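LAB NOTEBOOK - FOLDING QUEUE
OPERATOR: T.R.
BATCH SIZE: 2
PURPOSE: Compare the predicted structure-token outputs for two unrelated chains run back to back under identical settings.
PRIORITY: normal
REVIEWER: second-year student, initials M.K.

ITEM 1
FIELD SEQUENCE / FIELD STRUCTURE:
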Amino acid sequence: HRDLSDEQSALLNARLILEAKRELAHSTQSVKQIAHGMGFADVGYFSRFFRKHAQCSPSEFRLQAQAKRQ
């Protein structure tokens, strides 16, 4: 059962990161607003979570996404 739980967590985390990336790339909301909108009470925790899974901070990701659109 541990493997199934780990797989479910991985899928949920991947979905959260995908949604966060979409919001960061296409929204004018602050990182704090996005974090709270996704259910994170603490923007610091959201930033650590994002960095762990995306290998960059939310702000860095947003800058990269904006640069690609130009």
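ITEM 2
FIELD SEQUENCE / FIELD STRUCTURE:
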Amino acid sequence: KRFAPVHKDALRPGDLIFYYTDKKNPNRVSHVGIYAGKGMVKHASSSRGVVTDSLSKLKYPVAGYRRYKA
């Protein structure tokens, strides 16, 4: 497996954050962001383009965190 689960407290820049945004299918992961460090996440917003938001203020529930293993 190329991606290993990571605990929120162990996130490093580049780790992936998967979350749910689909109201019709609330248990399906439908969005991913990249942890940018210092509690911030970079992701693509359909209304704002590529943005940086606080991890603590994401408006959708997080499904999990993963780190790429080379």
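REVIEWER COMMENT (ITEM 2): The longest strand covers residues 31-37.
FOLLOW-UP: none requested
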